[in-house]
Design a protein that fits this description.
Layout lengths: L3 E3 H8 L3 H9 L6 E3 L2 E5 H9 L3 E3 L4 E3 L2
Antiparallel strand pairs: 1-3, 2-3, 4-5
Amino acid sequence: MTKLITIPKFARATGLPYRLCLQLVGSGQIPSVPVGGRHRIDVRWVEQWLSAGGYRNDRQGTTAKQ
């Protein structure tokens, strides 16, 4: 069974601001699954994403990791 987490839990796990996570999910940069009126993120994807370096802000050239 696939484990899904909410956007707030994703934000806490990655250290990213909640609003940035919403923007990334809304733009499709973070794949999500609609569940009811909300979106959930697959934990396996989060683990792969973090191991690859997480979010990279190309304007500043920084990587957000925890």
